[in-house]
Amino acid sequence: MENLARTLWTARTSRTEIKPLTLSNPDLDAASAYSVMWQGIRLREEEGEEIIGYKMGLTSKAKREQMNLKEPIYGVLTDLMHWDSDDLFPVAEGIHPKAEPEIAFHLGRPLHGVPTPEEAFEACDLIAPAIEILDSRFEGFKYFSLPDVIADNSSSSYFVIGEPLERMSFKSWEDLGKIQMQFYHQDKLLNTAAASEISGNPILSLVALCELLTAQHRTVPGNTWILAGAATPACAMTPESKFTLKAKPFEDLTFSCQ
Ligand code: OOG
Ligand code: MG
């Protein structure tokens, strides 16, 4: 497993795409793929990175259809992956980055076991619009299997968090599903989706994350950001790209590339 984590590490840091791991390791299943993913995170920690959150992936039908994969998965976010929306994102430093609109939760306190949607909602202190910058280490960013994408930390690369609102400004978790998300590229509307496209309601992505982590005897620590997964397909980035996520009641979130 350690060698697979190193292969992915080298692909990422040298910006060289590789063949899916399952081609040469047909026995790689989801459980061993999560071990590879965690080994990759340990390598990043050895370089001084700190875990600051988790991401859920493939939580919307649009994303599952785009990637032709069936089940939600999780990945780990480190401090180095947090991109400031004021900074131009250098597309050439990625392999084939893509952007996608998300909702992010900030957990004020840890979650042990599997919470109800209410408990998950109450553990959040902040809720924000977010844009995830994905980048697969695999050739062409497509046709990989679930274990491949799990081992590759769910194609994590960077994430941009918009201006958060206090969780208390939402009456109930049900209201989160009604948020209308509009994703723009170069000021042109690319896609629009209700946040209910994300797991039925984005808070249910947080519950699903707890289910996945609990099954692996892990808990979700406090003071972490959780990305709920994209509501629409991801959009390929170019150095000229400018992305905006409009999702009332949040302020618009914009960032540009170079
Ligand atoms: C897998 C990661 C999916 C999401 O929000 O659904 C994801 C991929 O698309 O490469 O981050
Ligand atoms: Mg995502």
What is the element layout, followed by pairings?
Layout: H1 2-14, H2 21-24, H3 30-46, E1 51-57, H4 61-67, E2 73-78, E3 98-107, H5 117-123, E4 124-134, H6 146-151, E5 156-161, E6 165-166, E7 180-185, E8 188-194, H7 202-215, E9 224-227, E10 235-236, E11 242-246, E12 253-256
Parallel strand pairs: 1-9
Antiparallel strand pairs: 1-2, 3-4, 3-9, 3-10, 4-5, 4-6, 7-8, 7-11, 11-12
The protein binds 2-oxoadipic acid and magnesium ion (MG).
Content of β-strand: 25-35%
Shape: globular
Major β-sheet annotation: 8 strands, mixed
Low-confidence stretches: none
Small ligands present: 2-oxoadipic acid, magnesium ion
In DSSP terms (H or I, runs of 4 or more residues), the helix count works out at 7
Order of helices and strands: HHHEHEEHEHEEEEHEEEE
> In total, how many beta strands?
12
- Class by helix and strand content? alpha+beta
Mean model confidence by pLDDT = 96
Global Rg: 17 Å
Concise structural overview:
This protein is of the alpha+beta class and about 260 residues long. The chain contains seven helices and twelve strands.
Structure description:
By secondary structure, this protein is an alpha+beta fold. The chain has seven helices and twelve strands. The strands form two sheets. Strands 1, 2, 3, 4, 5, 6, 9 and 10 form an eight-stranded mixed sheet that branches. Strand 11 and strand 12 form a beta hairpin. The structure holds 2-oxoadipic acid and magnesium ion.
